[in-house]
Write a structure and sequence with these properties.
327 residues; Rossmann fold; three-stranded parallel β-sheet; 6% strand; elongated; binds adenosine-5'-diphosphate; binds tryptophan
Length: 327
């Protein structure tokens, strides 16, 4: 039986790229036999957050979003990373067997430095904490997007270094992502990859007038509706396909390709996306409101998750302390 684990940083409101690229797969994987751990990586978020109130809100928002979108707490253990202090202990143990060179090769670290971020020690050792997250629960499958695969491989390496020195302590996570669940890349409002850092996101729970306003920002061009266009050059259809059945998307594409009298303009197509998205997330939006009105229930779920996670992490930590001579 596999143990599934993944974490998500509470560094902003979740966007539809996060949903179709990660959250939906996490929720679908709950159908698989095995244990499931999903946590809010608040310790990791602190490598960039300097606003305590915003961080608290994003933690709550992330938990509520996962639950509203269908994460069943009876099937998965949902918790906050910082409520499992054993993870930081394991991170220390791993840091003592990990070479600086391994961390210096991390793409995500190098990218941030190249962008001018002045790195803290925490940002540098980020992959060690992430390895501890993974190894603390004897995880075997770690569903992450492409950008995190190198970090999972580093966790495999670190497990190997520790086990090589002290015997079989950590379970090597065998998979970053089951083949059937490969993450999909969602374009942002400007056609680049949707990402918080590009300011081109569409919040999952946006609705009504605000949704209309945001959807209208999808970048198009000034060609008239009558002018025939190559639909494969319009990323707007990739967004449409997230919410509208493929046959219907194909009909719209055909009309755009032919052009002429009666061909839809960009405004019409955006309207289709807006209405479909509004409907798609309507049940989750309702559930989110209910949860926000019942914080005690959310706290209870996170607390129960943390207790279960801590118990597991404590056994793994004890195993590690014993093996290396600290007990
Ligand atoms: P962001 O790029 O907005 O900062 P994160 O890096 O926090 O998003 O991503 C959280 C999860 O969502 C990751 O698993 C990532 O692979 C996934 N994800 C983010 N943006 C997209 C996207 N545009 N398409 C598909 N998946 C995405
Ligand atoms: N670094 C991951 C991200 O930014 C979040 C994360 C932290 C994580 N610890 C993890 C993901 C452990 C999977 C496993 O998306």
């Amino acid at each position: 039986m596999d143990t599934y684990l993944s974490g998500i940083q509470p560094s902003g409101l979740l966007h539809i790229g996060n949903y179709f690229g990660a959250i939906r797969q996490h929720i679908r994987l709950l159908e698989e036999q095995g244990e499931h751990f999903y946590f809010i990586a608040d310790y990791h978020a602190l490598t960039s957050s300097r606003d305590p109130q915003a961080l608290r809100e994003f933690v709550l928002e992330t938990a509520v979003s996962y639950l509203a979108l269908g994460l069943d707490p009876a099937k998965a253990c949902l918790f906050r990373q910082s409520e499992v202090p054993e993870v930081t202990e394991i991170a220390w143990l791993l840091s003592t067997v990990t070479g600086m060179g391994l961390l210096e090769r991390a793409h995500s670290f190098k990218d941030k430095v190249a962008k001018g971020v002045k790195p803290s020690v925490g940002l540098f050792t980020y992959p060690v904490l992430m390895a501890a997250d993974i190894l603390a629960y004897d995880s075997t499958v770690v569903p992450v997007g492409k950008d995190q695969v190198q970090h999972v491989e580093m966790a495999q390496d670190m497990a190997g270094y520790f086990n090589g020195a002290f015997g079989e302590v950590f379970v090597r996570p065998e998979m970053s992502m089951p083949a059937a669940e490969k993450m999909q890349k969602v374009p942002g409002l400007d056609g680049q990859k949707m990402s918080k850092s590009y300011g081109n996101t569409l919040w999952i729970f946006e609705s009504g007038k605000k949704l209309k306003k945001v959807v209208n920002k999808i970048v198009t061009d000034s060609r008239a509706p009558e002018e025939p266009k190559n639909p494969s050059e319009l990323f707007l259809f990739d967004l449409m396909a997230l919410f509208v059945p493929q046959t219907e998307v194909d009909e719209w594409k055909a009309k755009v390709q032919v052009g002429g009298e009666g061909a839809p303009g960009y405004g019409t197509l955006k309207g289709v996306i807006r209405d479909a998205m509004e409907e798609y997330f309507a049940p989750a939006r309702k559930r989110r409101e209910e949860l926000l009105n019942d914080r005690a229930e959310v706290d209870r779920i996170l607390q129960a998750g943390a207790e279960k996670a801590r118990a597991r992490a404590a056994t793994v930590r004890d195993r590690a302390l014993l093996a290396c001579g600290l007990r």
